[in-house]
Design brief:
There is one protein chain. With about 230 residues, the chain is α/β, with parallel strands linked by helices. It has one domain: Rossmann fold (3-Layer(aba) Sandwich), CATH 3.40.50. It is about 35% helix and about 30% strand. The protein has seven helices and ten strands. It has helices at about 45-55, 75-85, 100-110, 115-130, 145-160, 175-195, 205-210; strands spanning about 1-15, 20-30, 35-40, 60-65, 70, 85-90, 165-170, 195-200, 210-215, 220-225. Strand 7 (about 165-170), helix 6 and strand 8 (about 195-200) form a beta-alpha-beta unit. The longest helix has 18 residues, at about 175-195.
């Protein structure tokens, strides 16, 4: 049974001037535990679709169902609570909190969830080691390279062991070794915790690991490929 469904999803920007159809009738179903890549040219609607699924933006028309609950009808407070409990985000622009250290950024979601201090410490350090940043725990974002900030962002997204991880170009600033390590970490969470991963990506290294590849063009799904393994 699908844990995520979108039904006739439309997103139109600049409706009062020249309308831009970022999404144009996207309907899809995602089952629990999928490891899915959304691909397509720039401007095809990949990031917009992720934002809709994650409740960061609302469609112009259509619905998003999570566990058969229509999150497009949720209030802002309900969406905040939903995201906090269920979703880990990896943004292309990192979205780290500049006044917090790498450790504090990774810990932050768990702090909001009121997890015990020792649990937060163990999980944050485990993830920072996994992404190769155990020596950078006290560094703030401005003291880290772009690739290091990206790794902190991925560690933060995984910290609370979310049911769903939505990742927008998560490997854009990473070398091959770092990319392989991060994808290993994500696949481990996917397999051990049955977390559902949806990536927006141009990176062939990510696409090669995906078990399902959705292709968007002009705001529409033009291909849906499921692989074995």
């Amino acid at each position: 049974m699908a844990v995520i469904r979108t039904v006739d999803l439309h997103k139109i920007y600049d409706e009062d001037t020249v309308p831009v159809h970022a999404l144009n009738g996207v309907s899809l179903a995602v089952e629990e535990g999928e490891f899915t890549a959304i691909v397509g040219p720039s401007g095809s609607g990949k990031t917009t679709l992720l934002n809709m699924i994650g409740g960061l933006d609302k469609p112009s028309r259509g619905s998003v169902f999570i566990d058969e609950q229509d999150i497009t009808s949720y209030s802002d407070n309900q969406l905040i609570d939903f995201r906090l409990k269920h979703i880990g985000f990896v943004f292309q622009a990192y979205n780290l909190i500049p006044v917090l250290t790498a450790y504090e950024n990774v810990e932050f979601i768990m702090l909001l969830q009121k997890r015990p201090k020792e649990e937060r410490r163990v999980r944050a350090m485990e993830l920072l080691r996994a992404v190769g940043l155990e020596e950078k725990t006290e560094k703030r974002p401005t003291e880290l390279s772009g690739g290091q900030q990206q790794r902190v962002a991925v560690a933060r997204a995984l910290a609370s062991k979310p049911r769903f991880v939505l990742a927008d170009e998560p490997t854009a600033n990473l070398d091959s070794k770092s990319t392989a390590g991060l994808l290993d970490l994500m696949q481990e969470l996917n397999q051990n915790e049955n977390a559902t991963f949806i990536f927006s990506t141009h990176d062939q290294r990510v696409i090669d690991r995906a078990r399902r590849v959705l292709t968007l063009e002009d705001g529409k799904i033009v291909s849906d490929e499921t692989r074995q393994g």
